[in-house]
């Protein structure tokens, strides 16, 4: 590279450095102003990512890089939650985190039914409303329970199998009503009061 071109490149680098000097404290580091530039300097290994060799084995790094050979990219703000800076302003995030600087907690599959993703002891998990549970808040809660094979399909609401009714699927249904004061205790099954018997309590025991 011609001597004048090198000086021009360094002059531009110095101007860029002035911008770094007034930037925030954890911006990329550079060589302090007033350094001595040696146009014959050699750096082994060579300066990377557009860095300029200003003295033997001393690199002046481009904005966004640092290290002895300008080998490390820098991110501002810094990558959070264990993220790694891949190139200036680009972080690679650990599982469970997202966003440009890995500052957002992310739950695999998302959180349903109003659940919120939060880090609990460093592990992303869904914090569910009181009426929902499960890894993604996908399971409704029925405080009264669902009996006789019923399924909780929404907070406090059971889906009952055929032959059962009620908020907890606790009421049996007999297609044909029980007679003579009998009570339906299971689908199609009556419990009879004496002296009646039969499928529907229709038979009266004869007394002799």
From TrEMBL:
Alphabetized Gene3D superfamilies for the sequence: Laminin
Gene Ontology biological process terms, A to Z: anterior/posterior pattern specification; blood vessel development; determination of left/right symmetry; heart development; nodal signaling pathway
Pfam families: EGF, EGF_2
Superkingdom, natural source: Eukaryota
Alphabetical list of SUPFAM superfamilies matching this protein: EGF/Laminin (SSF57196)
Signal sequence segment: 1-23
An example Gene Ontology CC term for this record: extracellular region
An example Gene Ontology molecular-function term: activin receptor binding
Disulfide bridge positions per record: 43-53, 61-70, 107-117, 128-137, 174-184, 192-201
Swiss-Prot/TrEMBL keywords: Disulfide bond, EGF-like domain, Signal
EGF-like domain boundaries: 39-71, 103-138, 170-202
Protein name: EGF-like domain-containing protein
Organism: Periophthalmus magnuspinnatus
């Amino acid at each position: 590279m011609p001597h004048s071109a090198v000086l021009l490149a360094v002059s531009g680098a110095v101007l860029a450095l002035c911008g770094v000097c007034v930037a925030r404290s954890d911006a990329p580091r550079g060589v302090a102003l007033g350094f001595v530039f040696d146009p014959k300097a050699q750096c082994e290994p060579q300066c990377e990512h557009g860095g300029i060799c200003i003295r033997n084995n001393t690199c002046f790094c481009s904005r966004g890089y640092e290290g002895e050979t300008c080998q490390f990219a820098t991110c501002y703000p810094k990558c959070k939650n264990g993220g790694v800076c891949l190139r200036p302003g680009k972080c690679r995030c650990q599982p469970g985190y997202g966003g440009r600087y890995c500052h957002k907690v992310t739950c695999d599959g998302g959180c349903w039914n109003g659940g919120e993703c939060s880090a609990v002891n460093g592990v992303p998990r869904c914090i569910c409303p009181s009426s929902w549970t499960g890894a993604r808040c996908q399971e409704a809660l029925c405080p009264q329970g669902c009996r006789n094979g019923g399924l909780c399909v929404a907070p406090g609401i059971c889906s009952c199998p055929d032959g059962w009714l009620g908020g907890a699927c606790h009421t049996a249904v007999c297609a044909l009503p029980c007679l003579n004061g009998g009570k339906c205790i299971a689908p199609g099954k009556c419990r009879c009061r004496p002296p009646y018997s039969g499928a529907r309590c229709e038979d009266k025991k004869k007394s002799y």
